[in-house]
Amino acid sequence: MNIGIVVHGPNIIDSGYALTLINLIKEYGDVSVRLGGTMGRTAVIDNALEDIIDISRKLVPSDSLKIFHDDGVDVIFLLNYGKSAVTGQVFGYKVYNHYKNKIVDNNIPIIQIERPGEADGSVINWAFKSNLAEEFAKKLNLGIVTPEEVYETHIKNDNDTSTQRIIHGVSPGENIMVNSVVVGKSTSDKLVLVAEDNHLVDIVGGEIKPHGVEKLGEIDLNSAIVKTGLLRKAKVTPRVLNTTKSVEFKVAFLDHAGEDVYRFKDSSAVITIGDDTTLISSDILYRFNIPIIGITDGDLDKVVESGFKSKNSVIFEVESGNDDIIGAIIHEELFKNKEYSNNFESIDEVEKEIIEIINNRKIKYTINRI
Asked: More exposed terminus of the chain, fewer Cβ within 10 Å: N or C?
C-alpha cells in the first residue's frame, strides 16, 4: 500500500505525535511525508525531521493533499493538533473542501488524525470510507467524528460568505492574524471578520488594529489564512543548521512576514520591516545563523513564545508609525525596489546607511545590537 502523510502545524511535531504516528502508519505500507503550511517548518528543523518530512516546498495543506492524489497513493493521512477540537475539525473541513476543488476524481480516502492524546481528540474519514479510520481510532483511543457531524455542528449555521467569516475556537485576548499580519485582538470567544470590497473593515468580538489592516491590504476573506493566539506554543531549543552562504555579502529585504522567509536562507543578512515581521523572521532565520536588521516602532504583538535572533543582528526602534515609512525609503534607495542587494560589504555598512536615512527625516530612534 502506498500512503501519503500530510503533517500540518508545529504542535503535532513538537508534541512528538507526528513521528509516533508516522512510525505507526509505516506498518501499513510505504509512506511519503510532506509538510502542509509554513510555521511547521521550524518545528521540523528543531526536531531534526527534515529527512523524514519533506519541507522543500512551501505548500498549503490542500496542495500537499493534491500532490499525493496526483501521485496515485492508496490513502492519505492528515495529521494535525489544533488549539481545540473545534478549530481542528473546522480546519480539516476547510482543507478537504479546498482540496476537492483542485482535483477531478475524488477517489482516495483521507483520514484526519486530530489532537491525538487529548480527551477530545478524533479521527475523521473525509472522502471515501476506509476501515483504517476505525482501526486507528481504536489504536489511539480516539473518537470517530463524521464529516456530517463537523458540518452540522460547526459549519451549517456559519455566515461564511464573501463579506463575513466566523472564526472558531478563539479565546479573549488572542492576536488575530490574517495572512501572517496581526490585524487585531479578540475580546470574545465569538469572532467574526467582516470585509467590504476585499478589505477587512471590522472585527466583531475583537479590536481592530488599523495599521495591521493597512499593511494587509486587499484580501479574499474566504481563502485567507486566519490564525489566533501564538503561532507556536512550545518552548523549544532552536536547532542551528550548517548552511552554505553566498561568497559575496548579499542582503535581502523583507517587509511582510507572510512571505516565504526560508527562501532567504542563503543571504548574509536580511532587513525586516515591522515589529511582527522582525520577530517572526528573526526567529526562523536564527536556524540558519542569519542576522537581521530590523526596523520596528515598538508596536509588537506576541505571536511566538520566544523570538530568537542571530549574533550581529541590529534592531532599530523608530518613532511610532515610522517603520513602514523608513522601510519604503530603504527599499527604494538602497535596494532600488529589488529583493536583494550586493552593494554592501558588511552589516556595519548597512547600519550606517540606515542611520543616515533616519537622520535625514529627523526621526528619533534607538539601536539594539545583538
From this structure: N
Gap between the Cα atoms of 164 and 317, Å rounded: 36
Which tens digits make up the pLDDT trace of 173-221? 999 999 888 899 999 888 999 998 889 999 999 999 888 898 888 999 9
Of the candidates 52, 59, 15, 23, the residue with the CA atom closest to the CA atom of residue 38: 59
Nearest to 10 by CA among 310, 176, 234: 234
Nearest to 212, CA basis, from 177, 261, 246, 244: 177
164 vs 55: CA distance, rounded Å: 33
Query: pLDDT tens digit string along 78-130?
Result: 999 999 999 999 999 999 999 999 999 999 999 999 999 899 999 999 988 89
Q: Which strand ranges, in their side-by-side order, compose the sheet holding 292-296? A: 340-341, 251-254, 269-273, 292-296, 314-318, 365-369
pTM of the predicted model, to two decimals?
Answer: 0.82
Q: State the sign of the Cα–Cα–Cα–Cα dihedral 299, 303, 306, 311.
A: negative
Cα 94 to Cα 45: distance, rounded to the nearest angstrom: 27
C-alpha separations of 141 from 118, 123, 285, 293 in Å: 9, 10, 39, 48
Specify the pairing of strand 314-318 against strand 365-369. antiparallel
Q: 2-154 belongs to which CATH class?
A: alpha beta
Locus of grid cell 499525493: 68
The cell for 56 is 522543500
For the chain, give every domain's residue range.
Answer: 2-154, 159-228, 251-369
Where does the chain show beta strands of DSSP type E?
A: 2-8, 30-36, 75-80, 110-114, 122-126, 143-145, 164-167, 175-178, 181-186, 191-196, 199-204, 206-208, 226-228, 251-254, 269-273, 292-296, 314-318, 340-341, 365-369
Q: What percent of the chain has pLDDT over 90?
A: 69
Give the pLDDT confidence score for residue 259 in this predicted structure. Answer: 62
Q: How far apart are CA 329 and CA 79, in angstroms?
A: 43
Contacts (Cβ under 8 Å, ≥6 apart) of 62: 36, 95, 96, 98, 99, 102
Q: Is there a contact between 227 and 177 (Cβ–Cβ < 8 Å)? A: yes
